[in-house]
């Protein structure tokens, strides 16, 4: 059985979950669900990043002990992922013993192979980014992202010999063994290697909230170095060899472009040093703005996914977020249009088609599936081909477009065939038309499943296919899954229309 291991970034607990975090996590969930449908053994990992100066400072500001602060905020992420039907197999917390054991093992290995050396760091650090920053990167003396002056640091640190591994990484990126996607991100990463990069510090002397370096009493692990290791500790490195060996290397690390350097350069270099295989794909999707503005607390335009789920329901939020712009490109989220899009794509789209078809089958055929007909079989097989290809390319917006295509194809067929007239004039043709429509609805339920799992299950329920998950993907995708003579149900509205 093929395995598929997919990860999201682990999110900082100093922030509440917002739709940026939700965007990546929902996208990962879509891919995880699709691969499970295909019969693969999937491990989907997400979690929270809980150590470091930034989190410690936020805890202090909130008047809480760091661990209590992390427990509370990590729980908020777990709660919203539940509401959004995120099907992660594990939720890794970097304050867990599981993580700590793996980090100690990994750092000891880096030291043993001579990839780490002691030195003095003197330079700048932006706590907002949790990143060492160069003069070159500043804009008017300020960190461009946090608009704050960085700290001047002078510390004894352990460094990682990044320069030793960069030529090998360039080679692996160029020969496709390490895929950096989309293509423009690959070029960006190769550009960084070409420019030359300094070795990086893997420890902090002045920070207390972290995992102690196993070979030093007074240093904690630099938060990024420790965070990246969640991808191996979360599947058992240092605690459960069997699971680790089964799932590593990751098939895809998913994130936004803001943290590509850590994932496409630092992380592969650390893995090479430790003698571990590299992830297959590092995919950096774009960054989005909200109604044209950067999402930020100070602008007050940060959207809370909880509020969206209250208004639209979990499935619709998943759909609305992922359909805003191409996956991989930067884009703008126009939350003001969500109601319009909900009504047009979901209430009038999938919702309307499903209820229209099932109501006609009830009215004209007493809710009994007619004799099988294969008119749509080839067309739908072609649509599946495009769908699988889009999933393989991680183009989730294309997947959504393909779902819409099947939806409009079926809508157009209803309009052309006019079953309400056929009911009076041509019963044989009516049977044919309704079989093709019913099967289309079944295929739509299947295609929709990774994006909108609740609605998909409901449609399968209306079609009396509650056991659909026991079937293989091939069986499900074949035309003719609905047996003639079986009963179907009358549906409740799947997406009740919303008023603005
Ligand atoms: O960077 N558009 O955590 P973080 C799209 N802890 N995606 C967005 C977004 C936006 N406007 N805003 C946030 C960290 N994201 C580290 C990661 S991993 C080993 C450690 C998403 O809480 C996107 O996935 O700042 C981005 O990469 C991530 O949130 C950053 O989350």
From TrEMBL:
Keywords (A to Z) from UniProt: Aminoacyl-tRNA synthetase, ATP-binding, Cytoplasm, Ligase, Metal-binding, Nucleotide-binding, Protein biosynthesis, Zinc
Keyword Membrane set for record: no
Note on cofactor: Binds 1 zinc ion per subunit.
GO MF annotation list: ATP binding; metal ion binding; methionine-tRNA ligase activity
The protein, known as: Methionine--tRNA ligase
Main localization, broad class: cytoplasm
Record: residues binding Zn(2+): 126, 129, 143, 146
Motif ('HIGH' region): 11-21
Subcellular location: Cytoplasm
Domain of life: Bacteria
Reaction it catalyzes: tRNA(Met) + L-methionine + ATP = L-methionyl-tRNA(Met) + AMP + diphosphate
Function: Is required not only for elongation of protein synthesis but also for the initiation of all mRNA translation through initiator tRNA(fMet) aminoacylation.
An example Gene Ontology biological process: methionyl-tRNA aminoacylation
Domain Methionyl/Valyl/Leucyl/Isoleucyl-tRNA synthetase anticodon-binding: 383-469
Species: Candidatus Buchananbacteria bacterium CG10_big_fil_rev_8_21_14_0_10_33_19
Domain tRNA synthetases class I catalytic, residue spans: 13-121
Family: Belongs to the class-I aminoacyl-tRNA synthetase family. MetG type 2A subfamily.
UniProt gene name: metG
Regions crossing the membrane: none
Assembly information from the UniProt record: Monomer.
Pfam families: Anticodon_1 (PF08264), tRNA-synt_1e (PF01406), tRNA-synt_1g (PF09334)
Domain Methionyl/Leucyl tRNA synthetase: start-end pairs: 147-358
